[in-house]
Amino acid sequence: MVVVVVYAPDAQYDVMNEERGGGYSQRLGQRAPTIVDGTVAAKWKPGKPMPKPTTEQLKHPKRLLFSDLKLQLWHYACKPLHTLVGMGDMNPDLYAEHRRGKDRDAMMEMMDELKLVSCGQAVWPQSYAGFVTHGGDSAHADSHIDYMMISEASATSVRRFGIHANPDLCEDRGGRYAALFIDVDVVSVLGIAKPQQPAKAQGRFQSAVKYSDKPRLARFRDFADKFFSQGEIPK
Question: How much is the pTM?
Answer without folding.
Answer: 0.70
